[in-house]
């Protein structure tokens, strides 16, 4: 049985999510990785270096840059017949591509997979992470999106062959006209090993600088609650939870966060939780492995000062 993984990449860099997807699906069979875009030679080389990759297919066209989902589906439709599994991460591209491909191939997509039990059996969270559903599918081909943070990354050190694939006759109806990016030198939130999250009690965008300073000292990504995002204290793409990003870091430091169900839906994969809260009875305080009861404006500067001393 063979697997085709659609690579995630941005600004010429392979996303860490792809290494995790490759590692997860390697148990299903030999893995080929498809890299599409324009000027993506370095991305293809990075994909070829992942252990478990048999071959990298590279298809370069400006159609992939201007309308990635439409064009990706047109190419995948022709390639999918050679594979039993087509998989990618459950990021914005995967969520766009896989359902469209499923409609074209008349298959049921299996989305947000967090565990692969076998070739026809997968676990995925439902009801905002409050239950885990086991899906068994006897379809001839499985189309999967995987929550990358639930899996370990494939190591690098491989040198798989890279083969060009010509994409012909791609017609698109959509076009990307602009991309607005948040500049950040912190790690990717969805795959970071440490995340420092701030709640609405941080009080202002200026207050979030304190959260960012602590995150930088720890080499961590910054997250936020929806209340903090709605208040304008943190950008949209920092939101963690049911309607934000799903994270699974080794360590989550939750600062001034109550632990509403919708936030908890995004942090269930966190291995250790440290909560800093004035309220020892807050729902997240009860869930935390370590609870620091105190005012974040006292505790966080002390933590930063201690880290500076190291
Ligand atoms: P609060 O609940 O107000 O909690 C603030 C906490 O800070 C309290 O525990 C308080 O004790 C503590 N505190 C106050 N002052 C200090 C201080 N000085 N120092 C330390 N601690 C202090 N939320 C998400 O986060 N992600 C989602 O994806 C999401 N999706 C949603 C989807 C829907 C459909 C709905 C209805 C809601 C969603 N929410 C989501 C919102 C969610 O219900 C909560 O409102 C939100 O998570 C609360 O954010 P918070 O913890 O920052 O604020």
Automatic annotation (TrEMBL):
Keyword Magnesium in annotation: no
Cofactor info, note text: Binds 1 FAD per dimer.
Keywords attached to this entry: Electron transport, FAD, Flavoprotein, Transport
Electron transfer flavoprotein alpha/beta-subunit N-terminal domain mapped to chain residues: 3-180
Superkingdom assignment: Bacteria
Keyword Flavoprotein: yes
MF (Gene Ontology): electron transfer activity; flavin adenine dinucleotide binding
Protein known as: Electron transfer flavoprotein subunit alpha
Lineage of the organism: Bacteria, Pseudomonadati, Pseudomonadota, Alphaproteobacteria, Hyphomicrobiales
């Amino acid at each position: 049985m063979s697997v085709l993984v659609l690579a995630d990449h941005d600004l010429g860099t392979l996303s860490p999510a792809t290494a995790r997807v490759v590692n997860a699906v390697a148990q299903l069979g030999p893995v080929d990785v498809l890299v599409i875009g324009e000027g993506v030679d370095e991305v293809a080389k990075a994909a070829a270096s992942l252990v478990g990759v048999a071959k990298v297919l590279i298809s370069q066209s400006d159609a992939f840059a201007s309308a990635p989902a439409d064009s990706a589906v047109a190419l995948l439709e022709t390639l999918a017949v050679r594979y039993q599994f087509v998989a990618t991460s459950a990021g914005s591209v995967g969520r766009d591509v896989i359902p469209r491909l499923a409609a074209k191939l008349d298959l049921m997509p299996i989305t947000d997979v967090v565990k692969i039990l076998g070739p026809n059996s997968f676990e995925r969270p439902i009801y905002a992470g409050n239950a885990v559903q086991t899906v068994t599918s006897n379809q001839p081909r499985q189309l999967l999106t995987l929550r990358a943070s639930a899996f370990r990354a494939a190591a690098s050190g491989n040198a798989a062959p890279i083969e060009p694939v010509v994409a012909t006759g791609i017609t698109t109806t959509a076009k990307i006209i602009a991309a607005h990016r948040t500049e950040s030198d912190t790690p990717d939130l969805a795959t970071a090993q440490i995340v420092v999250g701030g709640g609405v009690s941080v009080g202002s965008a200026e207050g979030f600088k304190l959260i960012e300073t602590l995150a930088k000292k720890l080499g961590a990504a910054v997250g936020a609650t929806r209340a903090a995002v709605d208040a304008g204290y943190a950008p949209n793409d920092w939101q963690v939870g049911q309607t934000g990003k799903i994270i699974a870091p080794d360590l989550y430091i939750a600062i001034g966060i109550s632990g509403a169900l919708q936030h908890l839906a995004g942090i269930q994969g966190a291995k250790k939780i440290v909560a800093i809260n004035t309220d020892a009875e807050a729902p997240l305080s009860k869930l935390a492995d370590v609870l620091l009861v105190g005012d974040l404006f006292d505790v966080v500067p002390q933590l930063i000062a201690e880290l500076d001393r190291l």
